[in-house]
Amino acid sequence: MKRGRKEAVQIICPKCRFTEIVYLPMDDLPLCPECRTPMVIQELLDEGKSY
Question: What pTM value is reported for the model?
Answer without folding.
Answer: 0.72
